[in-house]
Write a structure and sequence with these properties.
With 121 residues, the chain is an alpha+beta fold. Strands 1-2-3 form a three-stranded antiparallel sheet. Helix content is 48%, strand content 22%. The protein is rod-shaped, with a radius of gyration of 24 Å. The chain has one domain: Pantoate--beta-alanine Ligase, Chain: A,domain 2 (2-Layer Sandwich), CATH 3.30.1300. The chain is built from two helices and three strands; from the N terminus they run H-H-E-E-E.
Length: 121
Amino acid sequence: MQDGSAERGAALVEFAVVLPFLLMLVIGIIEFGCAYNTQLSLQAAAREGARALALGHSAATVTATVGSATPVAVDQVTQVPCSTAGGSASVTVRESFEFGIPFVPIGARTLEATGVMRCGL
């Protein structure tokens, strides 16, 4: 008399084998989503910093850049001010992002964004 208990046990073993890969996939999707969100925040911060620099607020550029990057902690801000009227000002922002996917050794990557704005005439 077969009651199906052996098949239920096999399903449990198959689930136990597949579960780590499923968890790695789900956590990987979440981590890459967080990295993409960080990249978007860096792009917005670089654009805001370039805007402040193009308007002539060079002293407030770093403050504007870091302030608009919240919740991201900006590691480095590089400024290239306007050289001539009608030229362009640029701000580059860098941040180190640590991927935390179990059993996948991606490690830390540097995310970078550059904002460029035309200077006033």
